[in-house]
Amino acid sequence: MNAPLPPDRDADVLIVGAGPAGLHAAFYAAWRGLNVTVLDARHEPGGQLTALYPDRRVYDVPGLPAAPAADVIAGLVRQLDGLPAQLHLNTLARTLEADGEEWRVGTLGPHGPRTYRAGAVILAAGLGALRPREARVPGTHPDVRTDVPDPAALAGRRVLIVGGVPQATRAALELAQAGAQVTLTHRRAGFRGSPADLDALAEAGHTGRLDVLAPAVLLNVTPTGAALTVDGQPRDVPADTVLILNGYLPDLTPVQGWPLGWQGEYVPDGVGGRTALSGVFVAGDVAASGQDFKLISVGLAQAAVAANHAAHHVRPDLRVRPGHSSEKRLS
Ligand SMILES: Cc1cc2nc3c(=O)[nH]c(=O)nc-3n(C[C@H](O)[C@H](O)[C@H](O)COP(=O)(O)OP(=O)(O)OC[C@H]3O[C@@H](n4cnc5c(N)ncnc54)[C@H](O)[C@@H]3O)c2cc1C
C-alpha cells in the first residue's frame, strides 16, 4: 500500500529520465508503495528507443525476442498501470539542491520553472536530455520550428513537415489525426518509422489524409511555407507552421553541474546505485558501473537495484530487497 505523501513533498522518489532504466526504476519504487514522479525532457517516454530507433527491432531484451523498440517501451509504460507513478514530460531537470534530508530538483517544464521536492532522486539520464537537432537546411529562417508542438494546438492549421526520420513520420500522423492539414516532404523517397507508423503513413498518403511529397528538393523554407521541386516540377507549399524534424541529439550538460563526481559522461556508483550524495542514485547508461555496456538489459537490472535502495532510503521501514513479485499481489 502506498502511504500518502508528506505535504512538503512532490514525490517520494523523483526519477530523471523516462528511458528504459527510469521507467523500470519507477515500476519498482511504485510497486514498493512509494509515490514516484518521472521527468523527461521529451514529449514521450522511451529515451533512445523512441527517439532514435523506434523503427528497429531489439533482439536482446530478455523474454521479448525481436521486439520493436517502441513495443519494449509500451510494455514498460503499461507496467506502471495502477501504480502511484506519474510521468511529467517536456520537463528538463536542471538543478539539484539538498533540503535537509530531502532533495530539490529545479526544472523547466511546459508551464515554466518548477521545483520538485523528493525524498530520493534517481538519475537515469542515459546519454543526456534528447533535444531536437537543429535544422540543417541552408538558409532556413530561424523561426522555423525543430520540435513537435502539441498536436491539438494545430487542429485545422496547415502544417509542413520536412524530414524523413521516425520523429517526422510520427509527427505527421499525430498532427493529421488531430485535424491538421499536413504535408510531409523529404529529399529521399523513403521515410523511417516503426512498422505500424509506416503502414499508417502509406494509408494516410493513399487516402489523401495527408500529402506526401517525396523525393523533393527543397529550395527555400520560411515560417510560412516552402518552395520545392518534385520530379523537377516547382511547387510552393504555403503553411501556418513549418517543422524541420531531424531527430535528436543528447545533451548531458543540464545535469553535469550536479556534484556527483562525474567521470566524463558517467556518474560513479557504488552498491545499490548509490552516488556521492546520500539519497541520490543512478541507473542505466549514465551509471559508471555499467562499464560501457550501454544495454537495455544492464540498465533494467541497475534500475531494479537502485529503486529498491531508494525505497529503503525514503522509507527505512521497508526492507531493501523486495521479495518476489510472483508471490505478492500488485494491488
Ligand atoms: C541506434 C541504437 C540502437 C540500440 N540498440 C540496442 C539494442 O539492440 N539492445 C540494447 O540492449 N541496447 C541498444 N541500444 C542502447 C540502449 O538504447 C540504451 O542502453 C538504453 O536506451 C539506455 O537506457 P537509459 O534509460 O539509461 O537511457 P536513455 O534511453 O538515454 O533515456 C534517458 C532519458 O533521460 C532523459 N533525460 C536526460 N537528461 C534529462 C534531463 N536533464 N531532464 C529531463 N530528462 C532528461 C532523456 O531525454 C531520455 O529520454 C541502442 C542504442 C542506439 C542509439
What does this structure look like?
This protein is α/β, with parallel strands linked by helices and 331 residues long. The chain has seven helices and 18 strands. Helix 1 links the parallel strand 1 and strand 2. The protein is elongated. The termini are close together.
Summary of the model, kept short:
This protein is an alpha/beta fold and 331 residues long. It has helices at residues 20-31, 48-51, 69-78, 166-177, 195-207, 253-256, 296-314, and strands spanning 11-16, 36-39, 57-58, 67-68, 85-88, 92-99, 102-109, 112-123, 129-132, 158-162, 181-185, 211-213, 216-222, 225-230, 233-238, 241-244, 248-251, 280-282. It is 22% helix and 28% strand.
How would the blueprint of this fold be written?
Elements: E1 11-16, H1 20-31, E2 36-39, H2 48-51, E3 57-58, E4 67-68, H3 69-78, E5 85-88, E6 92-99, E7 102-109, E8 112-123, E9 129-132, E10 158-162, H4 166-177, E11 181-185, H5 195-207, E12 211-213, E13 216-222, E14 225-230, E15 233-238, E16 241-244, E17 248-251, H6 253-256, E18 280-282, H7 296-314
Parallel strand pairs: 1-2, 1-8, 2-5, 8-18, 10-11, 10-16, 11-12
Antiparallel strand pairs: 3-4, 6-7, 7-8, 9-17, 13-14, 14-15
Helix pairs in contact: 1-3, 1-7, 4-5
The structure holds flavin-adenine dinucleotide (FAD).
